[in-house]
Amino acid sequence: MAEDNDHIITVRIVTPDGVVYDHHARLLVVNAIDGELGIMANHEPIIAPLKIAEVRVERIDGPTHENHIAVNGGFMEFSNNVASIVADSAERQRNIDLSRAQRAKERAEKAIAAANAKHDTDQVKRASVALQRAVNRIQVKQK
């Protein structure tokens, strides 16, 4: 059994609202600013800023048991076989309301169009982030 624990990591995702995810895994895949990272047990310690993207966790309780989490930026720290992700918001695939995410996407697209018409670059940037978040949630839900 001790040998099995040598290949296990703990994955925790925390937002200002509390813990969103806390499980043991064999593999964690995150999308860092510099590219995709796969983290397994005994990986070198690392801190990486994250994109608005999916986090994928291959759980230890089955070779095909994966969890998908929509993470809206933040950062990941990995050391001593514990991956801690801190994000402004994160949502597990099973908790995503697809129709709500699609409405958020439509609102963001309209906001981008309106901001472009007014040449308001700050509003375009804010609405573009909202669009990225909505698209991320939609993609994670549809996995």
UniProtKB/TrEMBL annotation:
<dbReference type="InterPro" id="IPR020547">
    <property type="entry name" value="ATP_synth_F1_esu_C"/>
</dbReference>
<dbReference type="InterPro" id="IPR001469">
    <property type="entry name" value="ATP_synth_F1_dsu/esu"/>
</dbReference>
<protein>
    <recommendedName>
        <fullName>ATP synthase epsilon chain</fullName>
    </recommendedName>
</protein>
<dbReference type="GO" id="GO:0045259">
    <property type="term" value="C:proton-transporting ATP synthase complex"/>
</dbReference>
<keyword id="KW-0472">Membrane</keyword>
<keyword id="KW-0375">Hydrogen ion transport</keyword>
<keyword id="KW-0139">CF(1)</keyword>
<comment type="subunit">
    <text>F-type ATPases have 2 components, CF(1) - the catalytic core - and CF(0) - the membrane proton channel. CF(1) has five subunits: alpha(3), beta(3), gamma(1), delta(1), epsilon(1). CF(0) has three main subunits: a, b and c.</text>
</comment>
<feature type="domain" description="ATP synthase epsilon subunit C-terminal">
    <location>
        <begin position="95"/>
        <end position="142"/>
    </location>
</feature>
<dbReference type="GO" id="GO:0005886">
    <property type="term" value="C:plasma membrane"/>
</dbReference>
<dbReference type="InterPro" id="IPR020546">
    <property type="entry name" value="ATP_synth_F1_dsu/esu_N"/>
</dbReference>
<keyword id="KW-1003">Cell membrane</keyword>
<dbReference type="InterPro" id="IPR036771">
    <property type="entry name" value="ATPsynth_dsu/esu_N"/>
</dbReference>
<dbReference type="Pfam" id="PF02823">
    <property type="entry name" value="ATP-synt_DE_N"/>
</dbReference>
<keyword id="KW-0406">Ion transport</keyword>
<keyword id="KW-0813">Transport</keyword>
<dbReference type="GO" id="GO:0046933">
    <property type="term" value="F:proton-transporting ATP synthase activity, rotational mechanism"/>
</dbReference>
<keyword id="KW-0066">ATP synthesis</keyword>
<dbReference type="InterPro" id="IPR036794">
    <property type="entry name" value="ATP_F1_dsu/esu_C_sf"/>
</dbReference>
<dbReference type="GO" id="GO:0005524">
    <property type="term" value="F:ATP binding"/>
</dbReference>
<feature type="domain" description="ATP synthase F1 complex delta/epsilon subunit N-terminal">
    <location>
        <begin position="10"/>
        <end position="90"/>
    </location>
</feature>
<comment type="function">
    <text>Produces ATP from ADP in the presence of a proton gradient across the membrane.</text>
</comment>
<comment type="similarity">
    <text>Belongs to the ATPase epsilon chain family.</text>
</comment>
<dbReference type="Pfam" id="PF00401">
    <property type="entry name" value="ATP-synt_DE"/>
</dbReference>
